[in-house]
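ok so I'm stuck.
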Amino acid sequence: MALITEVETAEGRVRGRRYREFLSWRGIPFALPPMGRLRFRSPQPMTPWSGVRDALSWGFAPPQMKFATMMGLGKYQPMSEDCLTLNVLAPAAPSARPRPVMVYIHGGGYVIGTSATMVYGGQGLVEHGDIVYVSLNYRLGPLGYLDFSEFSTPSRPIESNLGLRDQIAALEWVHRNIAAFGGDPDNVTVFGESAGGNAVVSLMSSPHAEGLFSRSIAQSANAAVCYGPERSQRWSRIFLDELGAEDGREVQALESAGVRHLGKAGLSFMRRALEDEPGTLGYAPVVDGDVLPMAPLDAFAEGKTQRLPMIIGTNRREAALFRKFGDEGMPLTTDRVDLLFENTQPELRKRVLSAYPSYPSDNALTALCGDAMFWKPSLDCADGHTQTAPTYRYRYDYAPRLMDTLGLGATHATELVPVFGLGETTFGKSMTTLGGARDLRGVSRRMQGHWLRFAREGAPMDTWPRYDTHERRTMIFDRRDRVVSDPRRERREAWEGFRGYR
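replied:
not stuck anymore, here's the structure
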């Protein structure tokens, strides 16, 4: 039976739950609800409260498609614009010294996702790593990742990069308050997967985030997803067209539209954007000269990111998930591949395609898509970051027999199971119904060991060497881990110079 535990934060006292091994606080607000006149504004400081505020249940999910908020059979997390909350999980046992902190940013293409998703619970990391774990929500879709700042006026300000600003505000909350939960504000690791991985490289590139964390882990980050003012303004106008906004009344339309109307217009916008420019994400950070002075890929290349230790990597068959369950406009057909190069660097098309001998087979298209969207951008980040700070690169190859049978293999997001130690959960066991449970436990033990050692000390375990651009030593996670120098060298050389959309 859970008992009550209370903690005093800078904003007020919060009431959580005490379990046998964990202390849990859920739904703590880190900013004012971004509603009404605060819609499309930077997150505003939370008003302090008197008395004790319950932090016993998840906060609202950000507005999104309902299916992504499923909490169980027929059970969905309620949604609201009042979504800027975070959750803290800590060991129940006392500690003589502050514990390392790991802050997780969820993925979902910046259009779906919530910190309440079962996978992101964090219990396995807290149990095995003696850390304090934080997960957070941030604004998604048009409310968080379209740039309407060109319509800003002194009387009605509109800022850019709202979802990224939300993440920074959450990290500021951690810096102010995590000591009260037993965490060390000077030892914070920020990590995330997919869009969350993109958030990590964006935070590494933002001067607004300096001093808020000590190290970072970017899992399957499409680091190229960040666009300049021209594309951002064009996309915002496409959205406003779908919203039905009249010329000169764009702000009024954005203010008055209901969440459902915004969502419907957002889906229409995404279809148009991805059809015209395959390989992009309709919702993304933007180069605004403020939160992001330059795109992360440029910041990494020029050595202008935070000089902090970093783990970065991808999965062996990233794009197999999207081929199987929905391609979301990704370059998984020959027409889209042609359009990708036509829109970016047509002179590289022939050289790149030569690195996939079976092209245009499904396997070759899947490999090319995964490389373009995830592997190549992550590789560019790693190459650039070695100029300034310790860098560790990985590839996740492990796949239980069921995943291979389904044609997925080590696809996008599958590394979350071992990283979060989910092998013994119903979800994890379903992956090993055809065998592989012992191997999964081993992979999980080793990956968690590296992630947790990195969070404690700034370097993974000794079996994982630092990455550099000479030997390019990369940790391959599989039934038996191994270190490989310059894996996929031929593909790397073929993609040399590709930058993608800007």
